[in-house]
Structure formats: structure tokens, C-alpha cells
Design a protein that fits this description.
Number of helices: 3
Structural class: alpha+beta
Number of domains: 1
Order of helices and strands: HHEEEEEEEHEEE
Low-confidence stretches: 5-21, 118-122
Strand order of the largest sheet: 1-4-5-6-7-8-9-10
């Protein structure tokens, strides 16, 4: 019994030491740069990759300084973006590509769990929600890598209004 307790104690000490190891100063500085680059509006208004089941969907992602985001989605047949479709919090994530070892940075979206009044927020089915992580291709382009489907999505920086009058 003492051996099991000792092993558990060693495991937890090792786990917390490894998980508490800070990222290098360079990576921390890069994360700060990408946090700043993230702020603003990103839109997807193409029909090239927009085949989403039977529907073509457009999306607008608003990244705010207070670490919250808003998502608007619309069909090309709509007249405008309409009300907020999803909201939640965001952070910068980093990792390395498994085939090259090159480091990447991206925006990771976490869905809201509750609304402002404290009631439970039910996540609607959303094109953006299928992706949740967007990797910077450059300063003006985010590539969404899906978790459930095999279609990439490309968001471009800028607030676009693609609806014809």
C-alpha cells in the first residue's frame, strides 16, 4: 500500500512539474503577437469550399480584445448577417506540424457554456463550430481544420458584406 501511495505521489509531482513548465520566452512573445493579429473581423464568403451538407453557408467571425468571439452565419439567399449565431471565448494555440516540425499558431474557439443571465447555452449546429481551431496561413488568412468533416475553410481578415440588394 505504501508503494502505491509513493508511486502516485511521484506521478503527481512529475505531472505537475511537466505541465507547469513555462513556454519559452520566444514562444510567449509570438503568442502575444498572434493575439494582437487575431483581433478583428474574419469572413468566409466563398462558395468554393462552402458546400456544407446540402447548403452553402457564409460565416463572419468577430474576435474581440476581451477574449470573447461572436459568430454570424448566413446563406447567400439572406439579406444580411442577422443576429449572433454563436459566442464564446478564444485563445491562441500553438503546436508543430507532424510532417515538418514547423511551429504554427492559431485561434482556438471555446463555445460558451452559459448566457449572461446564467441560463444554459445550447450550442446550435454551426459551420464554424465544426472547425473550432483556425491556423494562421499569414496575417490576413486563417485556415480552419475540421474535426468532423474533410473540408478546409479559409477565413480572410476584413468585414465583408456580400449580400446583394
Amino acid at each position: 500500500m505504501k508503494n502505491i501511495v509513493l508511486l502516485l505521489l511521484i506521478f503527481f509531482c512529475f505531472f505537475f512539474t511537466v505541465s507547469a513548465t513555462p513556454k519559452s520566452k520566444h514562444i510567449q512573445n509570438e503568442i502575444k503577437k498572434y493575439e494582437e493579429k487575431s483581433i478583428g473581423v474574419w469572413t468566409y464568403v466563398s462558395s468554393e469550399l462552402g458546400k456544407f451538407g446540402e447548403f452553402t453557408r457564409w460565416a463572419k467571425l468577430v474576435i474581440r480584445r476581451n477574449r470573447t468571439y461572436l459568430v454570424y452565419e448566413a446563406s447567400p439567399t439572406d439579406d444580411n448577417w442577422g443576429p449572433v449565431y454563436i459566442q464564446g471565448t478564444w485563445s491562441i494555440d500553438t503546436g508543430k506540424y507532424s510532417n515538418t516540425g514547423e511551429r504554427y499558431y492559431g485561434i482556438k474557439l471555446s463555445p460558451a457554456k452559459t448566457t449572461r443571465d446564467g441560463s444554459i447555452f445550447f450550442q446550435p449546429f454551426s459551420m464554424i463550430y465544426l472547425y473550432r481551431s483556425f491556423i494562421f496561413q499569414d496575417d490576413t488568412t486563417l485556415i480552419g481544420y475540421p474535426e468532423l468533416i474533410e473540408v478546409l475553410i479559409k477565413l480572410e481578415k476584413g468585414d465583408r458584406f456580400p449580400f446583394e440588394e
